[in-house]
């Protein structure tokens, strides 16, 4: 078997991080809820949802589109505990997202120019949006999902409201483009039950500007107040501006307490810890500076330390604290997420999640006798590469070659794409429609791509596509979590068939699940609408079985028949502890391999016996720690077929035949293989002093992990 490394996807990396938001407020005295998630906004309009409790497993992506960006994110909770997500980005509207489908649930047009900033009140009932014309629009979001009711438009001034924060539940503080910080009274303090000293607004001041502060002016131009933060005690306002200054203000007297010039350029983001004694600021100069209070009585602060963890601008920062989590997350133009801690900010270890997509963004097809085709996609662009291709006209062999490139006219970003095993069809899906193409060889050494006129696919969006057995059908997973089948070549007036059993079976619980599932897991499935969404499809080699997994950790096996399309429930696997990120059938058509995202477990199931295989019972809990602690999760699986290998043994030339069955796993920055013909014995836990270039579980090398390489080279591994 040849293992080759080809740099094909340099343009497939994620876009800049523009916004960060945790779904829950910090609770230092309690454990973090199971439903805690981090929303990450990207410059291309994508919103990623990450699970910090499951070792930063990526769970769901809301796809953006052309000329869209995410400039602000906010969470709130309805009365029944269901989480709600809002965003803004380069438009006049505030959008609430349907976390089940990944589609907009509702829009509210503020009718006040572009919305620059947004934040939800601490009690989760109101949302304030700072607009281009100088207005602050306050919306009532207490009515539940899809409810955005205008409450009032606060007193207008002339400058854009670039940043906004709530002071209690009665006032909002806005940083403006004219170098001023303004405080508006939203409601009377008495009406929201504010404690004494947090807000002192009266009924007569509601809707008006009750305080103004002015930052320094530089070079005769107005200073832009890019970031605002109000500490939890309600006594102090912190601002960051375009001069590189971080200023601390008295929230009651609207007077300057202290000013620091610890940055060399604009301060774009500011956040604070729950105890209100530490503030973190970052911006264009790439530094994260920590300010700590040194005299609580006199309210004196000092710039205590800074760290340079990013290679480019930092555009967003977020903090969260609980009994079991202490997090400081930052991101920006570098595109990677940096995970640090508040408690050990100065000298603690940090993790950097790669900018490359954590989910699979490439599909391949081909065999040893033909060119291997790889299709990669990003935004609305698809590229098809040929590996080890041969050009008959020129008589040359190419290591890699771009043979086709497509740019979709759709505004929506591509959600998924797939190649048929015969290398004849290419399917590309967005949330608005699915397109089917035919690939045909065209001299010299290229491919002609022709769209198939498939009327049933027009207007039918999908989150995932997969070709069925013998490439006679195409399976679609719709945003509503339905599984539809398109028979390739069917008549135009024939509708898509729905595999209702798949949607029912993947959502149903069996008796063992009801016994094992805790109240917290039930609560997670109820409050996170996307927990039941299908995230993986896998066919067995002969097409007799279809495996379906969901974000919530449920894997279901169905028997599958092509004509007419029909699926019947066979077995629901034991409920997994975290999201399955990849799965694949072995060539024996009976064994299923599943990799989970939280603890990076490699599980092997026998469908015929409906239980773990002997290898999985012995080895799934004993994989090398280096593998289990990988930051980037598994994005794909390739199971090498069992075959007979020949080896010369001894002087007499006897041939020993032995079966070989290896599983190849890969993530954004690593490749690993596991030989499932032998047992894995995890080495004893010892402190690591230096990261090794590779590691093996034992002397036989049955588990090998290859970390990312820094030089272009071809690796040839003969088995």
Description:
By secondary structure, the chain is mainly beta. It has five helices and 55 strands. The strands form 14 sheets. A five-stranded antiparallel beta sheet has the order 49-52-53-55-54, with no helix packed on it. β47 and β48 (611-612) form a beta hairpin. The protein is globular. It starts with 16 loop residues before the first strand and ends in a 13-residue tail after the last strand.
Give a summary of the structure in a few sentences:
By secondary structure, the protein is mainly β.
Structure characteristics:
mainly beta, 5-stranded antiparallel beta sheet, 4-stranded antiparallel beta sheet, 5 helices, 55 strands
Reading side by side through the largest sheet, how are the strands ordered?
Answer: 49-52-53-55-54
Calculate Rg over CA atoms.
Answer: 28 Å
Average pLDDT for all residues: 84
Which oligomerization state do the chains in this entry correspond to?
A: single chain
Largest sheet: 5 strands, antiparallel
Number of strands: 55
Q: Please, how many helices? A: 5
Helix residue percentage? under 10%
- Percentage of β-strand residues: 35-45%
Secondary structure category: mainly beta
- The low-confidence runs, each spanning 5 or more residues with pLDDT under 50, are 644-660, 683-701, 708-719
For the record, give the distance between the C-alpha atoms at the N and C termini, rounded to a whole number. 6 Å
Q: Label the overall shape.
A: globular
């Amino acid at each position: 078997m040849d293992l080759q490394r080809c740099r094909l996807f340099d343009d497939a990396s994620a876009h800049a991080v523009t916004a960060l938001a945790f779904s829950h407020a910090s609770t230092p005295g309690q454990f973090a809820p199971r439903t805690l998630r981090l929303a990450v906004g990207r410059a291309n309009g994508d919103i990623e949802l990450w699970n910090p409790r499951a070792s930063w497993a990526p769970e769901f992506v809301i796809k953006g589109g052309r000329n869209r960006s995410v400039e602000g994110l906010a969470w709130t909770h309805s009365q029944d505990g269901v989480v709600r997500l809002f965003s803004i980005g380069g438009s006049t509207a505030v959008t609430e997202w349907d976390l089940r489908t990944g589609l907009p649930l509702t829009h509210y047009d503020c009718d006040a120019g572009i919305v620059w900033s947004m934040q939800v009140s601490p009690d989760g009932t109101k949302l304030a949006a700072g607009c281009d014309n100088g207005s602050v629009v306050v919306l009532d979001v207490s009515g539940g999902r899809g409810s955005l009711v205008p409450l009032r438009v606060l007193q207008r001034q002339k400058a854009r409201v670039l940043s906004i924060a709530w002071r209690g539940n009665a006032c909002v503080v806005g940083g403006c483009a004219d170098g001023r910080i303004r405080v508006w009274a939203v409601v009377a303090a008495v009406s929201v039950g504010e404690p004494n000293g947090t807000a002192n607004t009266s009924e007569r001041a509601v809707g008006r500007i009750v305080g103004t502060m002015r930052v320094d002016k530089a070079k005769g131009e107005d200073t832009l107040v890019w970031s605002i933060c109000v500490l939890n005690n309600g006594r102090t306002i912190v601002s960051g501006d375009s001069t590189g200054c971080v200023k601390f203000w008295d929230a009651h007297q609207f007077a300057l307490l202290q000013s620091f010039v610890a940055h060399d350029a604009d301060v774009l983001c500011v956040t604070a810890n729950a105890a209100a004694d530490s503030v973190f600021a970052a911006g264009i100069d790439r530094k994260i500076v920590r300010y700590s209070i040194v005299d609580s009585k006199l309210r004196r602060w000092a710039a205590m330390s800074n760290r340079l963890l990013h290679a480019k601008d930092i555009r967003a920062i977020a903090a969260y604290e609980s009994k079991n989590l202490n997090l400081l997350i930052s991101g920006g133009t570098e595109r990677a997420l940096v995970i640090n801690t508040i408690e050990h900010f100065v000298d603690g270890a940090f993790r950097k999640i790669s900018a490359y997509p954590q989910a699979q963004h490439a599909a391949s097809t081909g065999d040893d006798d033909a060119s291997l085709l790889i299709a990669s996609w990003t935004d609305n662009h698809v590229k098809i590469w040929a590996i080890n291709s041969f050009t008959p006209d020129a008589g040359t062999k190419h290591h890699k070659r771009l043979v086709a490139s497509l740019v979709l006219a759709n505004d929506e970003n591509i959600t998924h794409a797939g190649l048929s095993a015969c290398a004849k069809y290419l399917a590309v899906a967005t949330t608005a429609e699915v397109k089917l193409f035919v690939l045909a060889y065209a001299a010299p050494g290229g491919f002609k791509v022709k769209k198939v006129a498939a009327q049933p696919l027009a207007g039918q969006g999908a989150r995932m596509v997969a070709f069925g057995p013998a490439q006679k059908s195409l399976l679609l997973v719709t945003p509503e979590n339905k599984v539809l089948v398109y028979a390739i070549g069917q008549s135009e007036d024939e509708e898509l068939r729905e595999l209702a059993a798949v949607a029912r079976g993947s959502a149903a619980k069996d008796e063992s699940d009801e016994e094992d599932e805790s109240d917290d897991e039930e609560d997670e499935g109820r409050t996170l609408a996307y927990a039941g969404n299908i995230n993986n499809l896998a066919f067995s080699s002969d097409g007799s079985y279809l495996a379906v997994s969901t974000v919530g950790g449920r894997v279901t096996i169905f028997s599958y028949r092509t004509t007419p399309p029909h699926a019947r429930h066979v077995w629901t696997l034991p409920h997994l502890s975290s999201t399955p990120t990849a799965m694949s059938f072995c060539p024996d058509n009976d064994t299923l391999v599943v990799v989970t995202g939280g603890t990076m477990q490699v599980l092997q199931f026998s469908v015929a016996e409906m239980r773990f295989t002997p290898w999985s019972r012995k080895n799934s809990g004993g994989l090398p720690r280096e593998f289990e602690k990988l930051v980037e999760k598994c994005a794909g699986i390739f199971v090498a077929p069992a075959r007979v290998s020949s080896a010369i043994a001894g002087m007499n030339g006897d041939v020993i035949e032995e079966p070989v069955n290896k599983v190849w796993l890969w993530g954004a920055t690593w490749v690993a293989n596991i030989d499932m013909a032998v047992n894995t014995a995890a080495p004893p836990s010892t402190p690591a002093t230096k990261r090794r270039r590779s590691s093996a579980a034992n002397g036989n090398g049955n588990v090998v992990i290859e970390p990312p390489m820094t030089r272009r080279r071809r690796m040839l591994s003969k088995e």
